[in-house]
Amino acid sequence: MPLIKISVTLKPTLLDAQGRAVHGALKNLGYNNVEKVRIGRYIELNLEDGPDIDGQVREICDKLLANPVIEDYRYEVVK
Amino acid sequence: MKFGVARFPGSNCDQDAYYAIKDVLGQPVEYLWHQEADLKGADVVVIPGGFSFGDYLRCGAIARFAPVMEAVQEHAAKGGIVIGICNGFQILCESRLLPGALIRNDGQKFVCKHVSLRVENTNTVFTRNAKPDQILSIPVAHGEGKYVCDDQLHDQLQANGQILFRYASDDENPNGSIDNIAGIMNTGGNVFGMMPHPERACDKALGSADGLVLLGSLLNGRS
Lengths: 79, 223
What we know:
Chain A has two helices and three strands. Chain A has helices at 17-28, 53-65; strands spanning 3-10, 40-46, 71-78. A three-stranded antiparallel beta sheet of chain A has the order 2-1-3, with helices on one face. The longest helix of chain A has 13 residues, at 53-65. The termini of chain A are close together. By secondary structure, chain B is of the alpha/beta class. Chain B has a nine-stranded mixed beta sheet, sandwiched between helices. In chain B, strand 1 (3-7), helix 1 and strand 2 (29-33) form a beta-alpha-beta unit. At the A-B interface, helix 1 of A face loops of B.
């Protein structure tokens, strides 16, 4: 049964308040070479194998797992 | 005028809304359970605040697919009035009944306090009892209330008068919402959402009765 690894992040144009706070904390720790931090969500799901796994994953992401108004998603299918 | 107040697991302003409608406005009201696609004849549907489905995934993302929301979609498509408050606003955005989205507050913190709102459009069923530019004191209580939209949508909201409330100044803006937007309606003028809680400002004993300007507007202009 294929494993789908999905990551969802805020669109680059939107300020990621969590990422900014963590970035500040890393700077406080002395990691001054960290340029940017973006925080997102990681989701794993197992899907029955089928002819159009990509189509179904995109549908699931567009409908529920991500909000296309504010978020981008990437995924990887591991068979 | 009959009201319905939706209830999801995690709704926590449903009783406040019910009280404001029944005891302050004196109107008939019923709760609408999320698993039933039945509005019980309500003319106005209120989607209340809270943390529906634990705010899992995104605020409002799971409530959007509850059976009651199918009935709300149909109601809205027929021109029926729908109001979303706080988490209700988030649910309406996730449902695409309202454009744009609500994300985490710029300051990361949950903010719970009274803010000053300016009424930006009094020519709507939600604000017709207000005076132009009237300032209302209404509390906010949210961690993810920053309204965002792209420039094109922002221009459209502005041009169509869809922005009904703004935080009265940058200092009053509790979450970093673009253009200080606090509440918007759809192009049809029958679906409205706002982050502040008018139902918590219906009695001077609670600090403000300014929420009645909004709730009273719904009663065919009778306050």
